[in-house]
């Protein structure tokens, strides 16, 4: 399967990374090289194998339903790019 | 003192032969002096470090000192450290003063260890040479023309150059072991789930694992005693009885079965590396170990599998860097989407962007099964290969890296070549096994060679024993690079 | 052409846990902006999710209540997209293996006096986290983001496209709304967004078995909006099709002011959510023991209770529906019937009538009804045993209400308190009906003597005059006479 310039642009858009035409062309070359490597995977028949998502075969541990956090807004917002009245400000959101 | 082990430093502190403030000042002074050349630290903060040292002295004075109390430890800049700049080597977090402590940092604080500074690293731990850091590359103290390895290159350099007695690292595909090998120090990646990932900036969640980097196996054991332990805030943290990882250090190695995967000893390995590794294995035979040939037939696939799974997880993990709540935000933009796109285009370096693109692609509609699911299936095959191999042996050995440290800039333009150098270390992360690297000599241009020791799940104490017994018979780990 | 509307609903029920689904932050409504957004909710670098047992327990409760399969293991997945109210850039949800699969909801629809039953099948119900809120007031041309709601546990309940009208869709939503409150997993507060509906609407020619292209209308937070949005959307689609156009699959928003739906701009680019299992969360295992334990704690379900009320108490479907509208009403009603088992219908009339009206008037719920079931039952007993008439009873009820404890304490905590209230009012004000026939006869004599004209008219065959005389006797008795008894005596005297 070969990657196209449109794929690169589509994926960059999905990932919200601005990419110029020139950068996209360069990325295409590098990504194609990496995908040539990745394609080696397709040679193996894995139809009988269960995918492995986690390194350990253990089940999810559950937390008791209890409030353990306190209000630290001031501290957390001290590192925010732009806040006002306790809110994080972003360019206008259009629904 | 620069070359003293953690045990020796601890004894000196306990006997009040030296104070933590003196010890910390000494290492800080050295770090300040060497950092302009090596670039091992992103942040040094004497005031905070010395305040911690003072507190440690009080603790020791009151008889409540523990093995690492008062000892300066360099922290990889991937661990969120309250009140410290925590950059993860990225412009994206170049203004991020962490409002909280990672679990690992909390554990060091709890025993009164001193944070001597935050070490440089490949951006978001993505790299094998430390060249992807926004803060510039780290130099290999054995040869400043060479890379220190990555991504924990700053930590490896700091320990190798004796700027800190020990350091923390993280390992997603070899990021502790490979720089340890390239810098001639010891490094351990524990079993997945042993060290909490809480507060460790995520790269690939199912592979990331924090671990210690130090001069010797004995030091690693003392470090791991602090770092390992259950954390309720990390769902993948394993609930296990605490262990003393120093407990088996002195055991003789008689009857130890060392597995040598035939796939590891192939022509791709540089001759100098092969020679040093074989010499080390010879030494193990002298120590009473026997060797058996084992097979890890899918080794070749570890790199492709890794370069699907790790970028996939990373592409999602790094979506939170959007310029809204913390970190970098592009100064000029047209609207919300433009703000996202510019922030992320400017805030991330090219390797990180490359991996985000790969990860986004393999997860995207129509490709998920062919790439992501196929990679997860192969991951299981690889874990099964190890399980088979461990039926015949106690530990597996091989080279940590097929080559000694390469030159700065040598591979940075060829990502595939760079990725392939991680072939031996990556499979271990995919399986979730523990593994370590210890120095076993020098190769080309007098650059260090590392021996890769892979253990079975939770076999850390045994691996440390295996490494320690070798280090009792060798002095590679005590050698210091010339300044 | 005959069009048929096909509707499936996705309901987001906010689970009534104390803390969030993956963090220990509070879920309480109404805090200052971002005061309840902790490090995990803000997606600070390095933070990790840990699943709340209370959220899982509520999902199991739901699964059992709708006769669904509770999956073990189930898997949490990441749904990736960028939006400022989504701090991680992905929502933790469930995709391939949801916690609850299948099940059904039984609807009773009473429309234009006709009673109708319908089964709506469920596809699944899965656990996920809520997003924060974007506030669009103008902050110098910017939006403000409040992440207090981010990480609040949701159960997304997905139905099959089994509904064929907005009436059915509303009946389904209401039944579900009752159920989630009934089993105590969601407070159902729609204004606060605790229960939100997305409607998938398509139309097709009647008789066709192929589904048309659907549009999803997001975030309908009242039953009225749900109904209006569906009706509007169906009309819109029919008009397009009748004009020879085709429907574009879209996500739309309902504008309550205009009564219209419009395409959402933020959803314009084709979505590719890149779902994959969340590596930070392990498979969720739910043991058989846990399911058994939850099952034991489940109350009688509204549907079971409705059937019981109809069969055992002889109530109509309509009455049974009203009395099971929520658990507070049903519990209150059951307690009243418990004290007066001989007349469940009388109990039903009063609970749905006077009690309900008074409570509504004061904006209170049945749980904190000032009159205890025992107090009400005594009043009803006095109607039944003829001590007072229904009319007098209403007056007594009014006085009881005024005298009863107006503090908002659950009646369950007032057991045994002043249960003789009704009798006390009746006795102290002499409101007992005059059932002594000699006393009544005396009254009748007096009235007949005082109204010779009416007597004559009656004897001349005017039945109306009789009613006037009854009225006079009742007046003389100040309402306390039993009208039937008065009738009987009067007729006897007049024909003697």
TrEMBL record, chain A:
Task: Identify the enzyme class.
Answer: ligase
Name of one Pfam family that matches = GatC
Which reaction does this chain catalyze? L-glutamyl-tRNA(Gln) + L-glutamine + ATP + H2O = L-glutaminyl-tRNA(Gln) + L-glutamate + ADP + phosphate + H(+); L-aspartyl-tRNA(Asn) + L-glutamine + ATP + H2O = L-asparaginyl-tRNA(Asn) + L-glutamate + ADP + phosphate + 2 H(+)
Q: Which InterPro entries match?
A: Asp/Glu-ADT_sf_sub_c, GatC
Q: Name one GO molecular function term.
A: transferase activity
EC no. given is 6.3.5.-
Q: Which Gene3D superfamilies match?
A: Glu-tRNAGln amidotransferase C subunit, N-terminal domain
Q: Which UniProt keywords apply?
A: ATP-binding, Ligase, Nucleotide-binding, Protein biosynthesis, Transferase
Q: Which GO terms describe its biological process?
A: glutaminyl-tRNAGln biosynthesis via transamidation; regulation of translational fidelity; translation
Kindly indicate whether the keyword Lipoprotein belongs to this entry: no
Can you tell me which family this protein belongs to? Belongs to the GatC family.
Protein name (Swiss-Prot/TrEMBL): Aspartyl/glutamyl-tRNA(Asn/Gln) amidotransferase subunit C
Q: What is the protein's species of origin? A: Nitrosospira multiformis
UniProtKB/TrEMBL annotation, chain B:
**Pfam families, alphabetized:** Amidase
Q: Which residues form the Amidase domain?
A: 22-464
Q: Which GO terms describe its molecular function?
A: ATP binding; glutaminyl-tRNA synthase (glutamine-hydrolyzing) activity; transferase activity
Gene Ontology terms describing biological process: translation
Q: List the EC numbers from the record.
A: 6.3.5.7
Q: Gene Ontology cellular component?
A: glutamyl-tRNA(Gln) amidotransferase complex
- Residues of the active site: 76, 151, 175
Keywords noted in UniProt: ATP-binding, Ligase, Nucleotide-binding, Protein biosynthesis, Transferase
Q: Which SUPFAM superfamilies match?
A: Amidase signature (AS) enzymes
Q: Which domain of life is it from?
A: Bacteria
The UniProt catalytic activity note for this protein reads:
L-glutamyl-tRNA(Gln) + L-glutamine + ATP + H2O = L-glutaminyl-tRNA(Gln) + L-glutamate + ADP + phosphate + H(+)
HAMAP family recorded for this chain?
A: GatA
Family of the protein in this entry? Belongs to the amidase family. GatA subfamily.
**Assembly behavior:** Heterotrimer of A, B and C subunits.
The record's section on NCBIfam families has: gatA (TIGR00132)
Name the job this protein performs.
Allows the formation of correctly charged Gln-tRNA(Gln) through the transamidation of misacylated Glu-tRNA(Gln) in organisms which lack glutaminyl-tRNA synthetase. The reaction takes place in the presence of glutamine and ATP through an activated gamma-phospho-Glu-tRNA(Gln).
Matching PANTHER family, A to Z? GLUTAMYL-TRNA(GLN) AMIDOTRANSFERASE SUBUNIT A, TRANSAMIDASE
Please report the name of this protein according to its UniProt entry.
Glutamyl-tRNA(Gln) amidotransferase subunit A
Species of provenance: Nitrosospira multiformis
From TrEMBL, chain C:
Where is each Asn/Gln amidotransferase domain found?
331-494
- Keywords per UniProt: ATP-binding, Ligase, Nucleotide-binding, Protein biosynthesis, Transferase
User: Record's superkingdom?
Assistant: Bacteria
- What would be one Pfam family of this protein? GatB_N
Q: InterPro entries per the record? A: Asn/Gln-tRNA_amidoTrfase_suB/E, Asn/Gln-tRNA_Trfase_suB/E_cat, Asn/Gln_amidotransferase, Asn/Gln_tRNA_amidoTrase-B-like, GatB, GatB_C_1, GatB_Yqey_C_2, Gln-tRNA_amidoTrfase_suB_CS
**Can the keyword Lipid biosynthesis be found in this entry's annotation?**
no
Q: Which SMART domains match?
A: GatB_Yqey
Q: What Gene3D superfamilies does the record point to? A: 1.10.10.410, GatB domain, N-terminal subdomain
Decide whether keyword Nucleotide-binding is in the record: yes
**Which E.C. number(s) belong to this protein?**
6.3.5.-
Reactions listed under catalytic activity:
L-glutamyl-tRNA(Gln) + L-glutamine + ATP + H2O = L-glutaminyl-tRNA(Gln) + L-glutamate + ADP + phosphate + H(+); L-aspartyl-tRNA(Asn) + L-glutamine + ATP + H2O = L-asparaginyl-tRNA(Asn) + L-glutamate + ADP + phosphate + 2 H(+)
Q: Give the GO biological process terms.
A: glutaminyl-tRNAGln biosynthesis via transamidation; translation
For this UniProt entry, the molecular function terms from Gene Ontology, in alphabetical order, are: asparaginyl-tRNA synthase (glutamine-hydrolyzing) activity; ATP binding; glutaminyl-tRNA synthase (glutamine-hydrolyzing) activity; transferase activity
Function field: Allows the formation of correctly charged Asn-tRNA(Asn) or Gln-tRNA(Gln) through the transamidation of misacylated Asp-tRNA(Asn) or Glu-tRNA(Gln) in organisms which lack either or both of asparaginyl-tRNA or glutaminyl-tRNA synthetases. The reaction takes place in the presence of glutamine and ATP through an activated phospho-Asp-tRNA(Asn) or phospho-Glu-tRNA(Gln).
Provide the family line. Belongs to the GatB/GatE family. GatB subfamily.
Its assembly, as annotated, is:
Heterotrimer of A, B and C subunits.
Descriptive protein name: Aspartyl/glutamyl-tRNA(Asn/Gln) amidotransferase subunit B
Organism of provenance: Nitrosospira multiformis
């Amino acid at each position: 399967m070969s990657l196209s310039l449109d794929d690169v642009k589509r994926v960059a858009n999905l990932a919200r990374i601005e990419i110029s035409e020139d950068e996209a062309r360069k990325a295409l070359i590098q990504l194609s090289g990496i995908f040539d490597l990745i394609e080696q995977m397709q040679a193996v028949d894995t139809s009988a194998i269960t995918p492995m998502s986690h390194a350990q075969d253990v089940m999810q541990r559950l937390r008791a339903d209890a409030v353990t956090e306190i209000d630290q807004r001031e501290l957390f917002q001290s590192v925010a790019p732009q806040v006002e009245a306790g809110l994080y400000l972003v360019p206008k959101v259009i629904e | 003192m620069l070359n003293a082990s953690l045990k020796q430093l601890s004894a000196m502190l306990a006997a009040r032969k030296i104070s933590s403030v003196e010890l910390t000042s000494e290492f800080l002074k050295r770090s300040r002096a060497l950092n302009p050349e090596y670039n091992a630290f992103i942040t040094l903060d004497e005031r905070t470090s010395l305040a911690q040292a003072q507190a440690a002295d009080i603790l020791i004075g009151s008889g409540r000192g523990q093995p690492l109390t008062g000892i300066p430890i360099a922290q990889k800049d991937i661990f969120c450290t309250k009140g410290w700049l925590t950059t993860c080597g990225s412009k994206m977090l170049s203004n991020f003063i962490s409002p909280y402590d990672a679990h690992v940092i909390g554990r060091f604080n709890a025993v009164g260890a001193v944070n001597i500074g935050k070490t440089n690293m490949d951006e978001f731990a993505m790299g094998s040479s430390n060249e992807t850091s926004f803060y510039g590359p780290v130099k290999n103290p054995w040869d400043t023309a060479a890379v220190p390895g990555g991504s924990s290159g700053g930590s490896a350099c700091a320990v190798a150059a004796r700027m800190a007695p020990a350091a923390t690292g993280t390992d997603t595909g070899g990021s502790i072991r490979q720089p340890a090998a390239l810098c001639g120090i010891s490094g351990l990646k524990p079993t997945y789930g042993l060290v909490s990932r809480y507060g460790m900036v995520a790269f690939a969640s199912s592979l990331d694992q924090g671990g210690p980097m130090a001069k010797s196996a004995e030091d690693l054991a003392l470090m791991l005693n602090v770092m390992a332990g259950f954390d309720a805030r990390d769902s993948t943290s394993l609930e296990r009885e605490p262990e003393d990882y120093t407990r088996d250090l002195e055991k003789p190695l008689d009857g130890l079965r060392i597995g040598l995967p035939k796939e590891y000893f192939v022509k791709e390995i540089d001759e100098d590396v092969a020679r040093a590794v074989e010499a080390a294995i010879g030494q193990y035979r002298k120590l009473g170990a026997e060797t058996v040939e084992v097979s890890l037939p899918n080794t070749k696939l570890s790199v492709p599998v890794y370069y699907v799974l790790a970028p996939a997880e990373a592409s999602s993990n790094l979506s939170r860097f959007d310029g809204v709540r913390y970190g970098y935000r592009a100064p000029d933009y047209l609207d919300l989407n433009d703000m996202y796109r510019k922030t992320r285009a400017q805030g991330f370096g090219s390797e990180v962007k490359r991996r985000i693109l790969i990860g986004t692609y393999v997860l995207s509609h129509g490709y998920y099964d062919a790439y992501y699911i196929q990679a997860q299936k192969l991951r299981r095959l690889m874990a099964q290969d190890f399980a088979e191999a461990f039926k015949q042996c106690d530990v597996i050995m091989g080279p940590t890296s097929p080559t000694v440290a390469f030159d700065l800039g040598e591979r940075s333009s060829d990502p595939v070549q760079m990725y392939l150098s991680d072939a031996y270390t990556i499979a271990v992360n995919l399986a979730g096994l523990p593994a370590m690297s210890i120095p076993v000599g020098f190769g080309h241009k007098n650059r260090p060679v590392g021996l890769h020791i892979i253990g079975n799940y939770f076999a850390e104490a045994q691996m440390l024993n295996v490494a320690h017994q070798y280090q009792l018979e060798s002095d590679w780990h005590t050698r210091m690079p010339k300044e | 052409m005959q069009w048929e509307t096909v509707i499936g609903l996705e309901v987001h029920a906010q689970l009534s846990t104390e803390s969030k689904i993956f963090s220990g932050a509070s879920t309480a409504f109404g805090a200052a902006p971002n005061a309840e957004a902790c490090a995990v909710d803000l997606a600070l670098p390095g933070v990790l999710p840990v699943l709340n047992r209370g959220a899982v327990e509520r999902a199991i409760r739901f699964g059992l209540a709708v006769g669904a399969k509770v999956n073990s293991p189930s898997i949490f997945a990441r749904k990736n997209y960028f939006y400022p109210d989504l701090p991680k850039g992905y929502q933790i949800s469930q995709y391939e293996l949801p916690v609850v699969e299948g099940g059904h909801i039984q609807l009773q629809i009473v429309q234009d006096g006709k009673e109708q039953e319908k089964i709506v099948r469920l596809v699944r119900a899965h656990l996920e986290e809520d997003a924060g809120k974007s506030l669009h007031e103008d902050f110098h041309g910017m939006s403000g983001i409040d992440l207090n709601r981010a990480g609040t546990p949701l159960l997304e309940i997905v139905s099959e496209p089994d509904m064929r009208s907005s009436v059915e869709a509303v009946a389904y939503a209401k039944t579900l709304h009752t159920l989630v409150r009934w089993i105590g997993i969601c407070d159902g507060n729609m204004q606060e967004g605790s229960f939100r509906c997305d409607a998938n609407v398509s139309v097709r020619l009647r008789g066709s078995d192929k589904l048309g292209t659907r549009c999803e209308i997001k975030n309908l937070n009242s039953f009225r909006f749900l109904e209006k949005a569906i009706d509007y959307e169906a009309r819109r689609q029919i008009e397009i099709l009748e004009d020879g156009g085709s429907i574009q699959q879209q996500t739309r928003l309902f504008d309550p002011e205009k009564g219209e739906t419009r395409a959402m701009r933020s959803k314009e680019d084709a979505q590719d959510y890149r779902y994959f299992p969340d590596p930070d969360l392990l498979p969720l295992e739910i043991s058989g023991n846990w399911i058994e334990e939850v099952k034991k704690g489940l109350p009688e379900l509204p549907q079971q209770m409705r059937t019981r009320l109809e069969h055992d108490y002889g109530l109509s479907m309509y009455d049974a529906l009203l009395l099971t509208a929520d658990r507070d009403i049903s519990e209150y009603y059951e307690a009243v019937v418990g004290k007066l088992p001989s007349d469940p219908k009388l109990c039903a009339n009063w609970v749905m009538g006077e009690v309900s009206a008074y409570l509504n008037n004061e904006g209170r719920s049945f749980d904190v009804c000032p009159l205890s079931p025992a107090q009400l039952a005594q009043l009803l007993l006095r109607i039944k045993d003829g001590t007072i008439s229904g009319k007098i009873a209403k007056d007594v009820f009014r006085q009881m209400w005024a005298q009863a404890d107006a503090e908002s304490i659950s009646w369950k905590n007032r057991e045994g308190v002043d249960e003789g209230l009704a009798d006390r009012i009746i006795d102290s004000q002499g409101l007992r009906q005059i059932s002594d026939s000699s006393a009544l006869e005396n009254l009748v004599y007096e009235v007949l003597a005082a109204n010779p004209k009416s007597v004559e008219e009656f004897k001349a065959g005017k039945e109306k005059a009789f009613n006037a005389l009854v009225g006079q006797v009742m007046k003389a008795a100040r309402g306390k006479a039993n009208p039937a008894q008065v009738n009987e005596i009067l007729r006897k005297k007049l024909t003697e």
